[in-house]
Amino acid sequence: MVSDTGAAARDLVRSAPVVLLGRVGLVAYGVVHLLVGALAVQVALGDRERVDKKGALQAIAERGPGVALLWVITVGLVALVVWQLAEAVWGHRGEPVGNRVLRTAVNLAEAALFGVLAWSAGSVAASGGAPSQKPSFATVVFGLPGGPLLVGLAGVGLVIGGGYAVHGGPTHAFLHELDLRGAGLNRSLLVTRVGQVGWTALGLVYGIPGVLLVVAAVRFDPAQPTGLDAGLQVVADQPYGPVVLMVLALGLVAFGVYCFFDARYRKA
To answer: What sections of the protein cross the membrane (predicted)?
Structure first.
């Protein structure tokens, strides 16, 4: 009975509608990073507008049927969470233990990441795109028991995740998730090159807020800016910072484009 229930659950979360919605979520994830990349270019050119994912989602909400689009993005990302959790539970069977543990950890990390973004997209949609006045992540967590330690651990987690992404770019680790059979040589090479650039830039960009979180934890300073926008502004303030930030912004755009390929070729 338990095995039958488990099989039914597995079939449900791997069903065509859930997979299709998950692919919509990957497209949405790409669109968000295209917007973050575009906003990062504005920072490089001297505009200090918020450039984190929440800011990108608000930029979507401000345009025409943007709120309705955000609800579509939310549903797609939730389906993507379900998809990744299913892969964590039922995927990678028959692989060596080490590979299975690594792939499962990646699935869980992606599920958490997509879940956070789905929550943000839903929150922005529910508010009609109005800017949020909620306190930052660091401010909230600092108020919890052991808050500085938790903030520091979150920062370390971001740094490790960023390092994994940077490593995964040159080593083509991202190709493990794709099925490029039938894509053709030229398309496969294009996906690989765009993925290399995009994943490397993604890791560098998201590692910076991780460092800022660790600094905030060490200083016991909940007012320390720790978000993605703060990280990119730190880069922009350095010598040659605007040039470096422009390169990173183009890398984020490349990652956004890669997400479209990911939506097309992700293994179901």
So the answer is: 20-45, 66-86, 106-126, 197-220, 240-261
**Lowest pLDDT segment from 25-39, 113-127, 248-262:** 113-127
- Domain count within the chain: 1
Please give the Cα distance from 62 to 64 (Å, whole number): 7
d(CA 116, CA 25): 13
Share of the chain above pLDDT 90, in %: 11
| Distance from C-alpha of 59 to C-alpha of 73, rounded to nearest angstrom | 14
User: Which among 103, 78, 102, 76 has a CA at the least distance from the CA of 91?
Assistant: 103
Which residues 6+ apart lie within 8 Å of 146 measured at CB?
none
Give the confidence band of 2 by pLDDT, cuts at 50, 70, 90. Answer: very low
C-alpha separations of 188 from 53, 126, 175, 181, 183 in Å:
29, 39, 10, 9, 6
Give the whole-angstrom CA distance, residue 195 versus residue 170.
9
Residues 61, 114, 158, 175: is their CA dihedral positive or negative? negative
Query: Containing domain of residue 194, as a range?
Result: 2-265
Residue 62 burial by Cβ neighbours in a 10 Å radius (0-12, 13-18, 19+): exposed
Nearest to 51 by CA among 233, 226, 251: 233
Q: How far apart are CA 39 and CA 123, in angstroms?
A: 21
78's tokens: 């939730």
Which amino acid is residue 204, in one-letter code?
L
